[in-house]
Specification:
29% helix, 13 strands, 3-stranded antiparallel β-sheet, 6-stranded mixed β-sheet, globular, alpha+beta
């Protein structure tokens, strides 16, 4: 235990966060605690580390953290090869965001769901609830869908309408003119919004509006897919509750603070288990004749036609996947020098 490289983490200490001032002393070798002579407060040697308040072996904690990252990377690649291949008949999509507590701030997780099959289409993690986060979710939805003609139901965040309109565009054939081809927004794209107004923590008013398309077209999609009588985001909100129940750092008002890398790995692991390993009660069908059971359970991946059986988590993590192909970085156009641009410096 070397106190020379330690610093005081006390918020009210005059030397907080400053190392090498000689104000840190060893308080207890057995309990591995330091003491600050400036504020007379003690702190654990593991404070502000990944091992803080973990009453387990450091080797075990390191092994579990490494397993989470490995499982998360494998689950993400598994999702890319089995779901993000443009084979899902989406028809109706709902998207929403949830937040998790990080030390001193919030971390936003945005996700999308194919309502008819309850298939999780993917999500993104960001420190900000902005257009970049929503655009990342839109790209995942487009990579999964076999057709861009669909109904999208979202909350009142204005970024959704802009992101889906920009992300669901087609390139028109060139008409002989040089330059960038014209882009046309998918004509079959329908967007519905649920705008909630709060007073304190209570919802006092709910407004449902059609942001793109017609009310008749939206009603036709809902009737065809059997996903409710009005514009709503109930299905994605239930999925948010599932993720919160299955991944401890996402529990509201819990003591397990989430870290960005853990949230990324855990999101892919829970998402793959939800799609391929967990049977959904609303997706069950009548069992075949002669079966001892009345109902046959189905997973969202089975309902979407991506597989014909229920996978085990060991099968998902044990499947050999091809490595991702290397993509050349996009070349940035060279900047043209203007009359006001400074001349390049010559080094003798």
């Amino acid at each position: 235990m070397g106190p020379s490289t330690q610093f005081c983490p006390n918020f009210y200490c005059l030397h907080r966060g400053k190392a090498g001032l000689g104000n840190i002393r060893v308080h207890s070798q057995k309990e591995r605690r330091f003491r600050c002579t400036t504020c007379a407060k003690t702190c654990a040697a593991s404070r502000n580390t990944a091992y803080y308040r973990l009453h387990k072996s450091l080797d075990l904690v390191t092994l579990v953290a490494d397993w989470q990252q490995r499982a998360g990377r494998h689950s993400r690649r598994f999702h890319e090869l089995h779901v993000q291949q443009g084979r899902v008949d989406v028809q109706h999509v709902q998207a929403d965001e949830l937040w998790a507590e990080v030390l001193g701030r919030r971390l936003w997780v945005a996700m999308a769901l194919a309502v008819p099959s309850r298939l999780w289409l993917g999500g993104a993690v960001s420190r900000r609830r902005d257009g970049a986060l929503i655009a990342a979710v839109v790209r995942m939805v487009r990579s999964c869908a076999s057709s861009l003609a669909m109904l999208v139901c979202v909350d009142g965040l204005a970024s959704y309408v802009t992101a889906f309109a920009q992300g669901f565009r087609h390139k028109l054939p060139r008409d002989g003119c040089a330059g960038r081809p014209r882009l046309l927004v998918e004509p079959g794209l329908l967007i519905g919004q649920v705008i909630k107004r709060y007073r304190g923590r209570r919802v006092v008013d709910v407004t449902r509006r059609v942001a793109r398309g017609s009310a008749a077209a939206v009603a036709a999609v809902r009737a065809r897919t059997g996903t409710g009588t009005g514009i709503n985001t109930a299905y994605i909100e239930r999925l948010n509750a599932t993720f919160r129940g299955r991944w401890a750092p996402l529990v509201r008002r819990g003591r397990a603070l989430v870290r960005e890398r853990c949230a990324e790995a855990g999101r892919w692991l829970v998402g793959c288990a939800y799609n391929f390993c967990w049977e959904h009660d609303s997706l069950r069908v009548s069992a075949p004749a002669g079966s001892a059971r009345r109902w046959a359970g189905r997973t969202p991946a089975m309902a979407a036609g991506l597989t014909d059986r229920r996978w085990g988590l060991r099968e998902v993590l044990g499947e050999r996947l091809p490595a991702a192909q290397w993509k050349a970085p996009r070349r940035q156009p060279r900047r043209r020098r203007t009359a006001t641009s400074p001349a390049p410096r010559l080094v003798a």
